[in-house]
Amino acid sequence: MKTKEFLFKYITLAAASLSILFLMGIILSIFKEGLPLFNDINFSDFIFGRKWHPTDEPADLGIFPLISGSIFVTLGALLVGVPLGVGSAIYLSEIASTNVREALKPFIEILAGIPSVIYGLFGMAVLAPLVRKLFNVPTGLNLFSASIILGIMIIPIISSLSEDALSAVSKELREASLALGANRIETIFKVVLPAASSGVISSIILGFGRAIGETMVVLMVSGGAAMLPKSIFSPVRPMTSAIASEMGEAVNGSQHFQALYGIAIVLFLITFLSSLLMQWFAGRENRE
């Protein structure tokens, strides 16, 4: 028995150590390839420059349009995903009967298992033509369409984690609220939801990280124009889309190649900060 426990301990330790090593390797490789760029270009010019023409001579390597594309698409996705995700979590946790919950929850979870390329195909074949026809715009492959598809993609993440947070609120709080004369809706929005706010906010931050890091959908549906959007129907090129579409044609070691890794560094820092925020909110919930 002691031998089995010894082996189990060190096998799991090795698995955890390898995970950390893989993560550190990825981080080091990104910074190793991307940091040399800033020997030739100022970091603020890279972040706030408004022109992305990496193949010109001299190259314009301002990624502000790409950052703006990522931020606007992600915020649009949150406008779609947060109400639907939190709303479905409230319904499943607080309103639906057991039979209805067991029937509906698998359908929400199925959304999480659909490959992103399928969402992209749906966006290109169904949503984009519909948007172009309804709003009479030149192209349906734009910020609006990408936001809707990404919003649908993050619903399962927000819904599942929010439902867990709502279900963790003690039954006594609900009963006390109802005993004091509050109705069901008041109990949900004034007692249960505030008590579960840390978990709900954590789910939204995780949804933000999922949306801003998504590649295939924005590559297929956002339009691919590296410019600042003038409206919600403008085509955009988010950071992930730029990396995926241009890495294959960038010469290894060139300034263009380094700039794409520089974009990866910026994207990594954004997702890292969102993860820290999520951990902070989760820790606050545990402290409370």
UniProtKB/TrEMBL annotation:
InterPro entries from the UniProt entry: MetI-like (IPR000515), MetI-like_sf (IPR035906), Phosphate_PstC (IPR011864), Phosphate_Transport_Permease (IPR051124)
Gene3D superfamilies (UniProt xref): MetI-like
Stated family: Belongs to the binding-protein-dependent transport system permease family. CysTW subfamily.
GO biological process: phosphate ion transport
Keyword flag Transmembrane: yes
Bilayer topology term: Multi-pass membrane protein
Domain ABC transmembrane type-1: 67-278
NCBIfam families reported in the protein's UniProt record: phosphate_pstC
UniProt-recorded name of the protein: Phosphate transport system permease protein
GO cellular component: plasma membrane
Pfam families attached to this UniProt entry: BPD_transp_1 (PF00528)
Protein function: Part of the binding-protein-dependent transport system for phosphate; probably responsible for the translocation of the substrate across the membrane.
Organism: candidate division WOR-3 bacterium
